[in-house]
């Protein structure tokens, strides 16, 4: 008998009382101002949220970030903004090792924990989410309303997600961090050292 | 603290307590995290609802685990994932080695996975000439020191920054005596970047696997799992079969609980959802039983399979906090470890169910509502029934039981006891035969026993009448 069959048989042989699944339709938390709450939580986890008007607004704000203006090698997967490297032309992701700054699309934000949902649907090498020194995530707000881009809680977040394609998806909440040395919080463990979230309305 | 050789928890705990300052420091570091967890849980009015939902989802999954495993395999395979099944640790290690050999992989980066610790994957791969680098900062620190992790979420919680500085100075040539966590973390970042770039294959654990979609989720704060598996073409994910959940929507419950319970964060920095291999690459999942299916059968211990490895029960445990993770001599320490390890290997881990005050704090904080302290109590009975208890615990109980069944003898001995407590010199009372007297004063003997008082009262009442 194969290991698979043995394991399945062993699992089936056990007498486990049946149990129903709970309803996920409950009174999950709602915030008076979800956008403001997102910003506060993001700040608490080491990131910054900024709402900007159009691509011009974005460029203007990016110009105020030293890590962006000092960056030598940059990647942009956001329309209307160009980086020094074209991700689609990169064959080996190892070439991205020295990217200083990446501006990447985010899909929507979650107020309760400052997470932004990102996927590699429009990104050829998903390592670009993790390997640059600094990152900005850019969320386009439907109908020009920032509220449309922010859900209150994770239950609402999963309602927005579909799993039909083989996409990689990640909730990113703030910059990379660790507290493994005597519980001292250090920003920039392996991934991005800073994270800006832009809501483009 | 070097690797502990004994399985005896009291011996190891005693050793840990030799350094009183360090013990207090360890205790308060963990309590600090426990308090962060409390604040986070109180920020959500639905906290208790989340806990019950999580507990029910896990109970349901275990009740139909075989079906969900098959569903998971089918859906994962459809996405181009290669699914492997391993009965035990040995088979797991063999499967991983074969995949690595097929790709002639020599250098591996691995993110935190308690399962691979449980299977002792690292020494096995090293024996076969493969370099394995643990990429979680805490794990890398203990790996360089050739120690096991002392906590499942914070593997280096037992170390001070001076210890880390010395270790890094020795292995990464950092400045001697520079204890700044920022500096040390930066050095590790540089060192591990090289390892990430050189790696042939990335290995991760799995926090949750989704039957409905055939995907799985890995949570980290550092981004090490993601960096480790998005540069090489091959990703191997190792998971215990209890990590399964039925639907992706159920993640909304678990991701809300996990980081809040673990470190008091609203969510981990990265919660990555893998559904299929990278372009032109391979994704392997190894499903491991290693004794889990056996636990399913027991009404007493089945709940322990709900564990999402958040570590909250350790952070709150008064015994863990004062004895350190290594004293448990096991991959998973603390309250949940004191259940899982004896279930797997009762002979070696027989002291663990007693490393507990039965205060119940672990059960109160557990995000999936495992009745930890109750299971620990039940386990004690089992250790006793298997005649694994030491004489120091059984003999006094037998004597006490004999005496309590004989009221006259009890009364007589009570009188003698009072007399001795009052009149004997200290050294005769506080000696090695009396472990109670080691850290505490014996109670002061009352002038009269309860019996005497009661008899006098009764006499006075009848006189008054
Ligand atoms: S038993 Fe509960 S509290 Fe302990 S690690 Fe597991 S899920 Fe967390």
From TrEMBL, chain A:
<feature type="domain" description="LUD">
    <location>
        <begin position="81"/>
        <end position="200"/>
    </location>
</feature>
<protein>
    <submittedName>
        <fullName>Lactate utilization protein C</fullName>
    </submittedName>
</protein>
<dbReference type="InterPro" id="IPR024185">
    <property type="entry name" value="FTHF_cligase-like_sf"/>
</dbReference>
<dbReference type="InterPro" id="IPR037171">
    <property type="entry name" value="NagB/RpiA_transferase-like"/>
</dbReference>
<dbReference type="Pfam" id="PF02589">
    <property type="entry name" value="LUD_dom"/>
</dbReference>
<dbReference type="InterPro" id="IPR003741">
    <property type="entry name" value="LUD_dom"/>
</dbReference>
TrEMBL record, chain B:
<keyword id="KW-0813">Transport</keyword>
<keyword id="KW-0677">Repeat</keyword>
<keyword id="KW-0249">Electron transport</keyword>
<dbReference type="InterPro" id="IPR003741">
    <property type="entry name" value="LUD_dom"/>
</dbReference>
<dbReference type="InterPro" id="IPR017900">
    <property type="entry name" value="4Fe4S_Fe_S_CS"/>
</dbReference>
<keyword id="KW-0479">Metal-binding</keyword>
<keyword id="KW-0408">Iron</keyword>
<dbReference type="GO" id="GO:0046872">
    <property type="term" value="F:metal ion binding"/>
</dbReference>
<keyword id="KW-0004">4Fe-4S</keyword>
<dbReference type="InterPro" id="IPR037171">
    <property type="entry name" value="NagB/RpiA_transferase-like"/>
</dbReference>
<dbReference type="Pfam" id="PF02589">
    <property type="entry name" value="LUD_dom"/>
</dbReference>
<protein>
    <submittedName>
        <fullName>Lactate utilization protein B</fullName>
    </submittedName>
</protein>
<dbReference type="InterPro" id="IPR009051">
    <property type="entry name" value="Helical_ferredxn"/>
</dbReference>
<dbReference type="InterPro" id="IPR024185">
    <property type="entry name" value="FTHF_cligase-like_sf"/>
</dbReference>
<dbReference type="Pfam" id="PF13183">
    <property type="entry name" value="Fer4_8"/>
</dbReference>
<feature type="domain" description="4Fe-4S ferredoxin-type">
    <location>
        <begin position="347"/>
        <end position="375"/>
    </location>
</feature>
<dbReference type="GO" id="GO:0006089">
    <property type="term" value="P:lactate metabolic process"/>
</dbReference>
<dbReference type="InterPro" id="IPR017896">
    <property type="entry name" value="4Fe4S_Fe-S-bd"/>
</dbReference>
<dbReference type="InterPro" id="IPR004452">
    <property type="entry name" value="LutB/LldF"/>
</dbReference>
<keyword id="KW-0411">Iron-sulfur</keyword>
<feature type="region of interest" description="Disordered">
    <location>
        <begin position="440"/>
        <end position="465"/>
    </location>
</feature>
<dbReference type="GO" id="GO:0051539">
    <property type="term" value="F:4 iron, 4 sulfur cluster binding"/>
</dbReference>
């Amino acid at each position: 008998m194969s290991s698979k069959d043995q394991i399945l048989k062993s699992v089936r042989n056990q007498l486990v009382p049946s149990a129903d699944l709970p309803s996920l339709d409950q009174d999950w938390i709602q915030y008076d101002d979800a956008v403001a709450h997102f910003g506060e939580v993001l700040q608490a986890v080491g990131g910054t949220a900024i709402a900007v008007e159009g691509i011009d607004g974005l460029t203007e704000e990016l110009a105020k970030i030293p890590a962006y203006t000092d960056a030598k090698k940059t990647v942009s997967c956001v329309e209307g903004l160009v980086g020094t490297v074209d991700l689609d032309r990169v064959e080996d992701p190892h070439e991205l090792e020295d990217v200083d700054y990446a501006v990447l699309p985010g899909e929507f934000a979650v107020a309760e924990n400052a997470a932004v949902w990102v996927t590699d649907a429009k990104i050829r090498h998903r390592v670009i989410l993790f390997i640059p020194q600094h990152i900005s995530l850019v969320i386009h707000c439907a109908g020009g309303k920032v509220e449309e881009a922010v859900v209150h809680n994770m239950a609402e977040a999963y309602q927005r997600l579909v799993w039909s394609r083989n996409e990689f998806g990640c909730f990113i909440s703030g910059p990379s961090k660790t507290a493994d040395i005597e519980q001292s919080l250090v920003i920039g463990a392996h991934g991005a050292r800073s994270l800006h979230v832009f809501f483009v309305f | 603290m070097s690797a502990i050789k004994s399985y005896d928890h009291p011996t190891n705990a005693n050793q840990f307590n030799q350094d009183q300052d360090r013990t207090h420091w360890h205790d308060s570091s963990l309590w600090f995290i426990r308090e962060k967890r409390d604040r986070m849980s109180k920020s959500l009015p639905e906290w208790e609802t989340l806990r019950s939902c999580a507990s029910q989802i896990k109970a349901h999954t275990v009740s139909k685990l075989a079906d969900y495993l098959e569903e998971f395999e089918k859906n994962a395979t459809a996405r181009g994932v290669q699914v492997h099944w391993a009965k035990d640790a040995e088979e797991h290690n063999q499967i991983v080695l074969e995949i690595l050999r097929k790709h002639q992989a020599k250098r591996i980066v691995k993110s935190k996975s308690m399962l691979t610790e449980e299977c002792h994957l690292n020494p096995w791969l090293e024996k076969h000439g493969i370099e394995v680098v643990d990429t979680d900062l805490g794990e890398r620190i203990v790996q360089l020191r050739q120690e096991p992790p002392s906590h499942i979420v914070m593997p280096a919680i037992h170390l001070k920054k001076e210890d880390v500085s010395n270790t890094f100075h020795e292995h990464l040539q950092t400045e001697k005596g520079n204890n700044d966590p920022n500096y040390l973390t930066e050095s590790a970042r540089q060192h591990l970047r090289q390892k990430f770039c050189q790696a042939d294959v990335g290995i991760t654990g799995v926090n949750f696997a989704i039957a409905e979609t055939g995907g799985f989720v890995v949570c980290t704060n550092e981004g090490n799992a993601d960096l480790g598996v998005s540069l090489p073409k091959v990703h191997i994910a190792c998971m215990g079969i209890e990590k399964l959940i039925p639907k992706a929507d159920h993640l909304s419950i678990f991701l809300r609980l996990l980081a809040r319970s673990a470190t008091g964060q609203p969510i981990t920095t990265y919660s990555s959802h893998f559904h299929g291999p990278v372009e032109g690459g391979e994704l392997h999942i190894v499903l491991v039983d290693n004794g889990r299916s056996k636990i399913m059968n027991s009404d007493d211990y089945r709940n322990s399979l709900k564990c999402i490895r958040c570590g909250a029960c350790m952070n709150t445990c008064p015994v863990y906090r004062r004895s350190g993770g290594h004293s448990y001599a096991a991959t998973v320490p603390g309250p949940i470890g004191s259940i899982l390890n004896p279930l797997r290997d009762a002979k070696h881990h027989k002291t663990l169910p007693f490393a507990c005050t039965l205060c119940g704090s672990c059960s109160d904080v557990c995000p999936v509502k495992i009745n930890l302290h109750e299971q620990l109590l039940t386990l004690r009975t089992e250790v006793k029934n298997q005649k694994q208890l030491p004489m120091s615990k059984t003999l006094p109980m037998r004597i006490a039981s004999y005496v309590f069944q004989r009221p006259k003898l009890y009364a007589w001995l009570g009188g003698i006891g009072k007399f001795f407590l009052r009149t004997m010199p200290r050294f005769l009372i506080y000696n090695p035969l009396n472990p109670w007297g080691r850290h505490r004063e014996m109670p002061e003997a009352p002038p009269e026993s309860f019996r005497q008082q009661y008899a006098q009262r009764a006499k006075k009442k009848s006189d008054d009448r």
